[in-house]
Automatic annotation (TrEMBL):
<dbReference type="InterPro" id="IPR014721">
    <property type="entry name" value="Ribsml_uS5_D2-typ_fold_subgr"/>
</dbReference>
<keyword id="KW-0547">Nucleotide-binding</keyword>
<dbReference type="GO" id="GO:0019288">
    <property type="term" value="P:isopentenyl diphosphate biosynthetic process, methylerythritol 4-phosphate pathway"/>
</dbReference>
<dbReference type="InterPro" id="IPR036554">
    <property type="entry name" value="GHMP_kinase_C_sf"/>
</dbReference>
<dbReference type="GO" id="GO:0050515">
    <property type="term" value="F:4-(cytidine 5'-diphospho)-2-C-methyl-D-erythritol kinase activity"/>
</dbReference>
<dbReference type="GO" id="GO:0016114">
    <property type="term" value="P:terpenoid biosynthetic process"/>
</dbReference>
<keyword id="KW-0418">Kinase</keyword>
<keyword id="KW-0067">ATP-binding</keyword>
<dbReference type="Pfam" id="PF08544">
    <property type="entry name" value="GHMP_kinases_C"/>
</dbReference>
<dbReference type="InterPro" id="IPR006204">
    <property type="entry name" value="GHMP_kinase_N_dom"/>
</dbReference>
<keyword id="KW-0414">Isoprene biosynthesis</keyword>
<dbReference type="InterPro" id="IPR004424">
    <property type="entry name" value="IspE"/>
</dbReference>
<keyword id="KW-0808">Transferase</keyword>
<dbReference type="InterPro" id="IPR013750">
    <property type="entry name" value="GHMP_kinase_C_dom"/>
</dbReference>
<protein>
    <recommendedName>
        <fullName>4-diphosphocytidyl-2-C-methyl-D-erythritol kinase</fullName>
        <ecNumber>2.7.1.148</ecNumber>
    </recommendedName>
</protein>
<dbReference type="Pfam" id="PF00288">
    <property type="entry name" value="GHMP_kinases_N"/>
</dbReference>
<comment type="similarity">
    <text>Belongs to the GHMP kinase family. IspE subfamily.</text>
</comment>
Amino acid sequence: MGRRADGFHELRSLVAFAGVGDTVELTPQDGLDLRIEGPFAAALDGGNLVMDAAEVARAQLPSLTLGRFRLVKTLPVAAGIGGGSADAAAALRLIARANEGKLTEAAAVALAPRLGSDVAVCLSSAPALITGRGEIVTSVRGFPTCGVVLANPGVELSTADAMARLTPRRSRGLPAMPRLSDFAGEFDKLMDYAGQRRNDLEPVAARLAPEVGKALAALRRLDGARLVRLSGSGATCFAVFATPRAALRAATVLAQDQPDWWITASMLGDPKAQ
């Protein structure tokens, strides 16, 4: 991550999607409503990106049919794993489906930056490299199927707070991104690429929440963990494994050691290639 001459932080992130997430449903009807349930429903006591997505879409196209949304919140809130952004993207897709031909894919992509820096990549839900403010999405080919363990030590971290404390070197010309070639389905190629890069927000998050350092250390001790990083601005951390089965075994061990953490194992990969 760098800071451009105009002052904003430029994202440079490799994004992949796990097979775990919230559920968003829409019953098309007059009006607009949202019902939230699930283990993390109570944590959503303020604004919600599902409603924000609906309002932004309606402001652009007043004739849209909206209706009643149902959000089952199974991902922790303010956790750095893009749960809210994925919910917003799902809402836009559902609105498009309920209004055939009115909200096009291009229109949804144009609305995404108004909702968050990673909503655009969540619209496709496929491995990609995001740059700029997140609005520049470049597809990644050949992302290998592998396993991941996600671990949240039970703290919330504000992305705005983390970004405010990030002080990368300001420069008038950021170096070009290294070319991201086709991974050709090879796990070792992915590990080689990702292993040479870091999350600039990791030390910031660890200062804001010391539990982050504990989670990273616990993940590094897991048998078979090939890559351990903070996810986004945290506080969720992740470890990548060669196979989903290895990730499941590791998650079971970690859950025994840390029963109060939110821990899950899942698969990473390109859903379009499955």
